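User: Hey, quick favor. My workstation is busy. Could you predict this chain's structure for me?
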Amino acid sequence: MKKIIAIFSFLFVVSFAMAQSPVQFTTTSHSFGKLVHNKPGSYDFVFKNTSNKSVIVDVATAECGCTTPEYPKAPIAKGKTGVIKVTYNAANMGTFTKKVTVKFANVEQPVILTIEGEVIEAK
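Assistant: No problem, here it is.
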């Protein structure tokens, strides 16, 4: 019985270690609060390469055309930081929640970044 518990414990630790992302984001969500209609809002999602080798952002895609992600095309060296800049165009009135999917090379699980807020009429 002790051997079975030891084997399961080992497999759990190994699977957890393999699931770790090579990057650590400071935050994966941002609230703009209130944005003025037709005045875009941008936010920089900062991440750090916590792996032992360079990481590459394959692609960052938004769920709609109202949100634009910008990401580094060059590799991010180990221990260095990178930025995914997300801009919301604020063309539609009302509340919004938008997601950006960030895929890193050789990493199975993407990172989901979320922005939210409310677009209000200019005074």
